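Quick illustration, no need to memorize.
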Amino acid sequence: MINRRATLMLAATVAASLAVPSYAGATTNLRFILDWAFQSQHAMFTIPAEDGTYSKLGLNVTIDRGAGSGDAVAKVASGAYDMGVADFYSMVRFNAQNPNNKLIAVMMVDDKSALAIELKASSSIKKPADLNGKTIAAPVGDASRQLFPLFAKANNIDEKSIKWVNVSPELREPLLLRGEADAITGHLTTVLINFRNINVKESDIRTMPYANYGVNLLGHALIVKPEFAEKNPEVVRNFIRGTVNGFNKMAKDPKAAAASIKKRDPLSNVDLEADRLKMSLEYRMVTENVIKNGISNVDRKRIEQSLKDVAEPFGITKIPPAAEVYTDRYLPPRSEMKFER
């Protein structure tokens, strides 16, 4: 019995050591920018940076906070950062506006978009069309704001009638509570937790998720300049490999994920961040597709249809082929992309 137990323990140790293959070679510095401030869903990056996973894969990763998907896209495109995480369609829009400086997504982080409109439950705005002529507040780089044209088109909203108020991220929710805006835009998992953090009940807030109102979009993705990926394919592949490892560790232990984020932002609340992560996993990250087919298993037809959907609102006259905005060539083998419950 003792020998059998020892054998099983040894086998488990070997399996764990093989989960992330070692990289023999020089260490590569990689600059990575988030789409927002450090939040629990970003633990998929901070955990492998802390536990040596990235290092084991030959990467020295620097992770900085962002100020919205638009900000992250612009900074990766400028070369200030090697890679980043951003809303997929913010990147698509940037590419259309900057045809000589395009980016490409190499891994889909969210299988479903969490973009939304948020307003007070007591508001007279009951349906999307009621937003006509109203005031909406949001940070300029917020993905929900950048993709509002899609929501507007699908719900008979005259974009020109909307008065936008530019606001810093930390003032967005208080502005709504003070009545200085009729509504705000933001990721559900960000806004609802922010309200909870200032003692506002979820029942006091009404949400209009884009996905529930005719806008079937993918969510966030890892983005990179094509030239960087082509020149450093193993760097990109190993970063994805380490991130998937972090994704699974994060999903298995939300409290540990929240603790990892607190190391980056001492003011964060571990309990709230753990709740945010559970919400993120349930709503946008772990779908039936991910459970069945693994992380970043993307239906090309879905991408193609969504590109057609965003073309008119974004003023895109030439719809790009799916292969121009997303590639799976840098993904590790599908056996390494499994979601582990």
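The chain has two domains: 24-112+218-336, 116-212.
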